[in-house]
Amino acid sequence: MSIVDVEIGLRQQRGALDMQDIVESAARFLEDAPAIEIIRWAAATFGDRLCLTASMSDALMIDLVSRVKPGVDVLFIDTGYHFAETIGTRDAVQQVYDVNVINVQPSRTVAEQERDLGPRLFGRNPDLCCYLRKVEPLNRALEPYLAWVSGIRRDEATTRAGIKVVEWDAKRQMVKVNPIARWTQDDVDNYMADNGVLINPLHYDNYPSIGCAPCTRQVAPGEDPRSGRWAGMGKTECGIHT
């Protein structure tokens, strides 16, 4: 019997408490492990109930995970507001890597949202817009899985400084795996250069952190890399990782 079968039974009998114990043990054991070993643990533990989420800012995590688990499901949230370069990167990923890209869409198109809630919701209520176009669609898409892999890092923002390499996603009642949580930007840059990883061309035009087009601006030299996200709105996260 696999750990996945055990986990399903535990959920039915006692909820997710025992799974949280497994997660805590894994987080301690894997804290200093290389990213590829963390991914191997996740793939061996969850099998086809493991997926990867990708913003298509680059294909670093896609490259890493597909080396361990070819054909892995990659969830991409197509908000309807992406840069053309981001959509192009998604399309290129499908051609270059051995992965199954799943295009996740909000329940309403942009036109339907504007009809129901008015135009430019992203400017009037960015938290609600992010929830409707990112968080809720992802929550739906994650339902078939027991664990998901993300590419967030501790050095990206103060809101991410305390993330673990393996953690319990209490909001979604599933496991979240952050294999490169300990990586620095230099680690990222070196890996991508050494392995020829696909990268969103916007990075070469002073967009170090890429989100939806209406809420992302270019960043000047010396500015915080994430300062171009929701600039002037007092917002630092879309809600997916909080």
TrEMBL record:
One Gene Ontology term, aspect cellular component: cytoplasm
Cofactor note: Binds 1 [4Fe-4S] cluster per subunit.
Enzyme class: oxidoreductase
Top-level taxon of the source organism: Bacteria
Pathway assignment: Sulfur metabolism; hydrogen sulfide biosynthesis; sulfite from sulfate
Subcellular location, principal: cytoplasm
CDD domains: PAPS_reductase
Role, per record: Catalyzes the formation of sulfite from adenosine 5'-phosphosulfate (APS) using thioredoxin as an electron donor.
Name of the featured protein: Adenosine 5'-phosphosulfate reductase
Native species: Planobispora takensis
